[in-house]
Amino acid sequence: MGPAASVLAASPETSSKRPAVDFLMGLINFERPSARTQDFQFRLQRMRDLLRRLDLADLLHQKAAPESAPIPTIHIAGTKGKGSVAMMIAAGLSAAGVRTGLYTSPHLHHLEERFRIDGKPCRPDQLDDLIEQSIPICRQMADQEVGQPTFFELTTALALLHFRQQGCQAQVIEVGLGGRLDSTNVIQSSLSVITSIGLDHQSVLGHTKAAIAAEKAGIIKPGVPVISGVRRRTDDRPGIDTAPGQTPHPDNNVTCDIQADDDPEPVIRRIAGEVGTRLLTLGEDFDFRCRPTRAWGSEVEVFDLPAPAGNNGICPPPAKLEFHLGVEGMHQAGNAALAAKSLQILAGGPLTPGDESAGRQLPSLDIQRCVRAWDSINLPGRIERFGLRDGPMLIIDTAHNEDSITALVTTLEHRFGPSAHGRRHMVIVFGTSRDKDAGLMLRVLSRLTDRLVLTRFQDNPRYLPLDQLAGAVPPQSFRDVQSSESSQDAVALARRAAGPDGVVVVCGSFFLADEIRRGIQIETLI
After folding, report:
1. Alpha-carbon dihedral sign for residues 513, 518, 522, 525
2. What range(s) does the Mur ligase central domain occupy (predicted)?
3. For residue range 251-290, what is the model confidence (pLDDT) as tens digits?
4. What is the pTM of this model?
């Protein structure tokens, strides 16, 4: 989500009981979405100025080698998957004993969730102190030509300041919107990751995947290795093992439906070549296999693809890494493959088999310890499964565009069978924002079930009203459609329709996931 789009409405913890947070939330009104490049360029200048005033100038990109970054910094962009990859990398580093800061957006419940160290959000008093340190600087900037920072600019700066003050040894930074002109793109990174390219935020990023790829590839910097999950259009997938009774499905979180004249992969490859850096691409340099387990999650194997033979005619053996991933979905296995390769590069692994030229950012990093952390990793709002008192299984997912909805549907088809109709009572609870293509998402969701409950979120004015949402339901897609203005009542309707042995799936928006997660009585995370 982007700067203007990533702001959750003020919840009780951001009331006047916390004046510092009130100041930060007040910057939301200053933030105006704009598609004009010159506006974003001005914002980048302001972001650099803000970091200098906070004594963080050494973090700024100076067109230098990756070794110039004060600490290993992983910068992650992508239409979908970037939050999951960021959390996996951070969890792996922390498990290996590296004190790691993680900056992501938006938050599900509390603002402090955006600023994590070793998995723990910053404390409210820490956030208040960070904001108070910045208020005099923000007011100085407001009186000058540079202008006052926006909400997203300041939260980004506060994250970097927090990680510095708390002695982090590495930091993982998720892009807000796009990449090239995002506020995070002023930092010097050690590794760049592009997870996927899809159609989202077209009014700002462009209306084709190639155009969007150019924006996201803007995080590529000279001398900084790049890992890309964007496959070549003609790439053949490796075999995907399936559990008994399941069939392979080609969809993958790091694979895009690409039209013949709209291929994002060559765009990323071209920009990496022009910038002058090494690029590792999923499906060309490395790949993965996954096998869903009978319990939740998958067994994943990440492996290098054979490199051309050297002068002696010998191909070096490809590296292989195996682990159990505790979250569901082949798309998450693809995300884990990107995270695993990122950790290998940070540990000083070769950029390609036989290439020993990579600089070691974390030479003592134990990769096995890193990936073992993913056995029990919890990714909030990512096909998150709960048990309800006297009720069905509840699955909450923040999917809010066609690609992420497709990944959700594909995962549930794998888990519950190609057709959920008649297999197990499944009901969709759906609400979304006005700027999303509700009809397209609902068409994909109709692959799962013909039972639907429409709703809206309460705490943000961007919701799509129920009458417009009902008008977006594709004809003959759902047999049973109910609706409720209350998201909690919508879940209650879905629970009754699904029955105690059924499944309720909540999706369509971060804001909806937030409300359901906060409001429903959840017994346990299964």
Report:
1. positive
2. 76-221
3. 333 333 334 458 899 999 999 999 999 999 999 999 999 9
4. 0.84
